[in-house]
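batch job 7 of whatever, protein = ABC transporter substrate-binding protein
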Amino acid sequence: MRRHRAAERVVLAALVLLSAACGSRLPERDFEQDPSPTAAAAPLRVGIITSATSPVGGSAFTGARDGAQAYFRQLDAAGGIAGRRVEVLTCDDGGSSIGNTECVHRLVDEKKVFALVATTALVYAGAPLVSRAGVPDIGGQPIGAAYDTYPHLYGIYGSQAPRDGTPGWHGELYGGTEAYRYFKRTQGARTAAVVSYNQASSAAYARLITQGLRKEGYGVVSEQVDFALPNFRAAAADLKNQGADLVFDALDTHGNAQLCEAMDAVGARVTAKVTNVQNWTDAVPQDYKNSPRCRNALWVTGSSRNYDDTADPQVRAFRTAMGGRPLAQWQLEGWAAAMWFTDAARACTADLTRACVEGFVGRPQPYTARGLLLPVVYEQLPRPPAVRRTCLSVARWRDGDGWVTQSAPMTANCFTVPQLPYRP
């Protein structure tokens, strides 16, 4: 229940699905096996479902998969898990509900994977099938509400919800105001602009942001642009005139880039243009190439250690394994998901069953992936907490330096904040 993480991802999903088809059966090329060398011992088979060819395009949803595969490759090179190689089977669901269900059938029913790891699905329609099969899904990205709904599913950020088949508590999820508290306390921010499309999911998420900001005492400037023909220049001029310190948004990546261009064009200077973990990537110079001032005002908040924090040995190990390719925060979280599964399997070497692995993942002790994650815990509280102490990782973009960690260590950057309800 960090700051409306699931709601952030639902916005992107809803925006891209406006133009998406319902999907079709997957061609054989979309179901691939990691070409690792065979070993004498029977391999431990895991599956990764990713919306690699979703309507979003590019590499929007492949980061967690790539990070997990990199981890398993170096694990196998070091001898695997008690001498057993991890055989990774990937499936591209195409970003559709039909494709996702097909991937679940192939991996769970046909290939009999032991577990799923680092799932990143635009539409996780197969989640109830995974849950009914009793297959642990470990370290997935909570793009929708599945990880706060079903047993046997363990998203990368944890959950306190009952997970009894209904999202959250009686259909409501909860998120905190820690990011807004952070900017108020550390940057002295008092006025925030919230920019959204005149589209249902975008507008709904903007209302959630506005609710949290007002709870923290901010003055809020609401800006809404047309989804088909957005006038970002007018929105940028207005937020400038109203003296916004911060800019939050309920936009897709392209919309964010256009907003930043408009802000530079009208001379809007803000303390922070706050984005989310999906935009925490090496692609910033390309995505924001026409807006240098806004680009260098980009801040991001999340629940994992900055992948540019090269002083940390675990980050260095991740970066080495990625082999010099462009990096993204979801890759690091996929790496951490694979580590989580591996640590669970190693703890169960004498009795490697799904029940034992879930016992490790769902234990009361928080999991941190050796400091790569803020403490992750799975509880089942009968009622949602009214307040919660929550920590966050913060970074800002600097040309020449990349993403620079702020307020380190992230485990001490914590606030006790109210938990606000929303419906997924």
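notes: Residues 329-347 form the longest helix (19 residues).
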